[in-house]
Amino acid sequence: MAERVAGPEIEKLVQLLAKLPGLGPRSARRAVLHLIRKREELLAPLAEAMRVAQERILVCSVCGNIDTSDPCTICRDPRRDASIVVVVETVADLWALERAGLLNARYHVLGGVLSPLDGVGPDDLAIASLVARVRAEATSEVVLAVNATVDGQTTAHYIADLLSPLGVKVTRLAHGVPVGGELDYLDEGTLAAALERRTAF
Fold first, then answer.
1. Number of domains in the chain
2. 57-100 tens-digit pLDDT
3. CA-based, 20 to 30 A from 9: which of 56, 61, 127, 140?
4. Any domain includes 1
């Protein structure tokens, strides 16, 4: 049995960091050691920023984005084209599209995709609130910017069928997004091509 090389507080920090995407136990240990070495300039400000985030971060009741205000900054921005709603799977996808800075629209975060094998049905996603938004607001176009996976495309078809009777234009990203690709990992050029060449659903 390996000897413990640090106190329980440090071990707990390593274990928590190791749960983050892209960090395993070894990377988490290196990160913790770096934070401890830079305690004043990194560890203390990080701890304070995380405390503030835990207290203040909210989920937008309109679109599902995360922010420190509800409605979020995007939903409150009068310069946004409120007639276009871009539907994404996750907040990470919303941020990816915002980084590209190509479409000055509003968003709607589904919170995932339909996946019968994982037990995710329509009631587990923000689909009903999307339909309600389209009905209530003067929406002229819904852009289905979901990932080009089987579950993503199934979700897109399901939403398109629901929106069809409402007479709203439904588009999807063009083939600039590779099949099996995820928006958060794409470069801005690929996202730009996909948005500019979006097609009718």
1. 2
2. 999 999 999 999 999 999 999 999 999 999 999 999 999 999 98
3. 56
4. no
Structural domain for 23, as ranges: 8-56
Q: Is residue 116 part of a domain?
A: yes
d(CA 75, CA 82): 8
DSSP reduced 3-state for 92:
helix
Q: How confident is the model at residue 194 (pLDDT cuts 50, 70, 90)?
A: confident
Residues comprising the chain, all counted: 201
Q: Tell whether 2 is covered by a domain.
A: no
Are residues 123 and 24 part of one domain? no
- Are 164 and 88 contained in the same domain? yes
- Render the burial of 120-143: b for 16+ CB within 10 Å, e for the rest: beeeebbbebbbebbeeeebebbb
State CA 199 to chain mean position distance.
22
Cα distance between residue 59 and residue 6, in whole Å: 37
Report the predicted TM-score, pTM, of the whole model to 2 decimal places: 0.77
